[in-house]
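Work Package 4 report. The design task specified in the project plan requires that, given a folded chain encoded as structure tokens, an amino acid be chosen for each position. We show below one input record used in the internal validation round.
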């Protein structure tokens, strides 16, 4: 696998995993009764995006390493 192909595959895996991880642990303002004026009731109270980005990167690295190993040892 060449570097550009590997980066493209990792980028794709990262975004797919991010969309899978985003809803974990999210509580809306409506659920917590912490309504900020002028915001949607479904807006998250604390989305913790940095933590989710780190988790996404870790999971993506594991998936990519498994895929790379499979492609190299097929």
């Amino acid at each position: 696998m060449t570097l550009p192909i590997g980066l493209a595959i990792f980028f794709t895996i990262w975004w797919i995993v991010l969309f899978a991880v985003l809803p974990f642990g999210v509580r809306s303002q409506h659920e917590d009764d912490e309504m900020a004026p002028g915001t949607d009731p479904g807006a998250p109270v604390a989305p913790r995006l940095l933590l989710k980005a780190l988790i996404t990167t870790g999971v993506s690295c594991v998936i990519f390493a498994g895929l790379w190993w499979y492609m190299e040892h097929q």
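The radius of gyration is 17 Å. Validation will be extended to a larger panel in the next phase.
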